[in-house]
């Protein structure tokens, strides 16, 4: 009988997979989409509530994306003083995101819900 003082390759793989834990991070988790307000029955209050909460989450995420792109644009403009053509892709991306946010969110901004 031979006894080895070095860990076996299979044992090392098994041990490292146990130490690492799950392969995906919690912030990459995708949540189930709820039906939109136009898919809810008129007497289904829970469906309407869930649709409204989903809209609020979507609005918050879209707002943060627009704010992040605005910050990137401002940083690029400060770094590339006098050379805006280098920042043009970022500026275009920001303008597109801002327009999409306005189309999606500003139409119902008075009510603040769907």
Summarize the structure in short.
By secondary structure, the protein is mostly helical.
Description:
With 114 residues, the chain is mainly alpha-helical. The protein has a domain at 39-114. The chain has helices at residues 9-20, 45-79, 88-105. Helix 2 (45-79) packs antiparallel against helix 3 (88-105). The longest helix has 35 residues, at 45-79. It is flat, with a radius of gyration of 25 Å.
Spell out the blueprint of helices and strands.
Elements: H1 9-20, H2 45-79, H3 88-105
Membrane topology: Peripheral membrane protein
Organism: Haemaphysalis longicornis (Bush tick)
Subcellular location: Mitochondrion inner membrane
Mean pLDDT figure: 80
SSE class: mainly alpha
Q: Sheet bearing the most strands, described?
A: none
Termini distance? 73 Å
Identify the overall geometry.
Answer: flat
Subcellular location: Mitochondrion inner membrane
Family: Belongs to the complex I NDUFB10 subunit family.
Membrane topology: Peripheral membrane protein
Protein name: NADH dehydrogenase [ubiquinone] 1 beta subcomplex subunit 10
Q: What are its keywords?
A:
mainly alpha, mitochondrion
């Amino acid at each position: 009988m031979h006894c080895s003082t070095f860990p076996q390759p299979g044992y090392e793989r098994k041990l490292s997979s146990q130490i690492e834990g799950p392969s995906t991070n919690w912030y990459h988790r995708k949540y189930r989409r709820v039906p939109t307000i136009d898919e809810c029955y008129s007497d289904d209050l829970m469906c309407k509530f869930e649709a409204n909460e989903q809209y609020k989450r979507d609005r918050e995420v879209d707002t943060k994306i627009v704010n992040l792109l605005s910050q990137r644009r401002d940083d690029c403009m400060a770094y590339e003083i006098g050379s805006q053509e280098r920042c043009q892709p970022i500026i275009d991306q920001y303008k597109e995101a801002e327009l999409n946010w306005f189309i999606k969110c500003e139409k119902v901004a008075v009510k603040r819900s769907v």
